[in-house]
Amino acid sequence: MANSTLKSAALLDQMKLHLATDAGKDLVKKIGLVYQINIAPKKMGIDEESFVVDLKKGEVTKGPCEGKPDAAFSFQDDDFLKVATGKMNPQIAFMRGKMKVKGSLSAAQKFTPDIFPKPSKM
Fold this sequence. Notes:
By secondary structure, the chain is α+β, with helices and mostly antiparallel strands. The protein contains five helices and five strands. The chain has helices spanning 8-19, 22-31, 77-84, 90-95, 105-109; strands at 34-40, 49-54, 59-62, 71-76, 99-103. It has a five-stranded mixed β-sheet. β2 and β3 (59-62) form a beta hairpin. It starts with 7 loop residues before the first helix and ends in a 13-residue tail after the last helix.
């Protein structure tokens, strides 16, 4: 994700490549939802960058979702990396206020570290 200052942008670039693999195509078939992820460098709501992880089409794009995503998340950059790499449980992140969710909670519950490529592939 060129021209992004976020550490998370590199992970989202990996996600884009991951979705082109067989494992990524299986995810698209299994989940079939659209997520918008808003990531702030320091404080949620300030200078956020938006990314769309489209698990219907199997793509990751920078910018807000066209239409309505199934679920939208807000994170601070470091917290997103912790959740995406499995170092922080998404439910715990939510309860501690490290992650905000809008939209369908059932869709949000399918947003787990399992959908991200494993760090060994990075």
